[in-house]
């Protein structure tokens, strides 16, 4: 226990130093440096083999050179995301001439009407902290579900940097589910990344293979008559982004709750798959998304 705490403390101190270093730089310079470091080191690490395996299963039609290009791009994107954490407060989604372009903002504003509730979903795509900014900066109250980091000191640092997003953070798990339920009952909205493996989820097709999928989105959407709104963030040059808010997905109700849940989560995974096929270097291929 003491050894693990010491390891966590050292890792946390290192993360804080890196955070401070990126914070001292202008956002574009920090992003460029983070991308350079990650794409220079990441592809050499052993667990990049998991990205190789995932790509071979998901996109078998591409060749080795293209897989290597995608993995370098994935690491570049990941390094940039890390470097941009200290600068999240600089992103003003609705500021003309700012660092963010937005398409489809009307689909967010439509959920601000009295009595409306929405599930805004995205994946680990582009900078995955940016989509919630579009929702909170439109004036909507949001509970954002997230997976807590294994290291509590790193988790505190990430939570600190996320405070500028303006959402209430709820760690995934039973406590987070209760907070999500309370949010729905009080008329607030939920934001969630839905592309990670969930062992106690449901099997849903993803790139032609069943993947265990978090399905609370569908459960709550069906129960509370929520809009299910896809929000995508594409990376642009110089630490800029384009947010695309797509029309809400159709939510069908046949009376068979299990079938309706599977149908909705299948549509969600189809949206994620479309995004990833269009920009595969934007996605985090290191997840254990499918059975080994």
What's the SSE blueprint?
Layout: H1 2-23, H2 27-41, H3 48-58, H4 64-84, E1 100-103, H5 106-109, E2 118-122, H6 130-136, E3 142-146, H7 152-162, E4 168-171, H8 174-185, E5 189-193, E6 197-206, E7 209-213, H9 216-224, E8 227-236, E9 240-245, H10 257-278
Parallel strand pairs: 1-9, 2-5, 2-8, 3-4, 3-5
Antiparallel strand pairs: 6-7, 8-9
Helix pairs in contact: 1-7, 2-4, 9-10
Summarize the structure.
With 292 residues, the protein is of the alpha/beta class. 46% of the residues lie in helices and 18% in strands. The longest helix is centred in the N-terminal third of the chain and has 22 residues, at 2-23.
Give an account of the 3D structure.
There is one protein chain. This protein has 292 residues and is α/β, with parallel strands linked by helices. The chain has one domain. The protein is built from 10 helices and 9 strands. The strands form 2 sheets. A 7-stranded mixed β-sheet has the order 1-9-8-2-5-3-4, with helices on both faces. It has a two-stranded antiparallel sheet with strand order 6-7. β3 (142-146), α7 (152-162) and β4 form a beta-alpha-beta unit. α1 (2-23) runs parallel beside α7 (152-162). The longest helix has 22 residues, at 2-23. The radius of gyration is 19 Å and the shape is globular. The model has no long low-confidence stretch (mean pLDDT 92).
Proportion of strand residues: 15-25%
The dominant shape is: globular
**What is the string of SSEs from the N terminus onward?**
HHHHEHEHEHEHEEEHEEH
Helix fraction by DSSP (H/I, runs of at least 4): 40-55%
Spatial strand order of the main sheet: 1-9-8-2-5-3-4
Q: How many distinct folded domains?
A: 1
Number of helices: 10
The beta-strand count equals 9
Radius of gyration: 19 Å
Reported for the largest beta sheet, the result is:
7 strands, mixed
Mean pLDDT: 92
Q: Which structural class do you get from the secondary structure elements?
A: alpha/beta
Ranges where pLDDT stays below 50 over 5 or more residues in a row are none
Query: What is the end-to-end distance?
Result: 30 Å
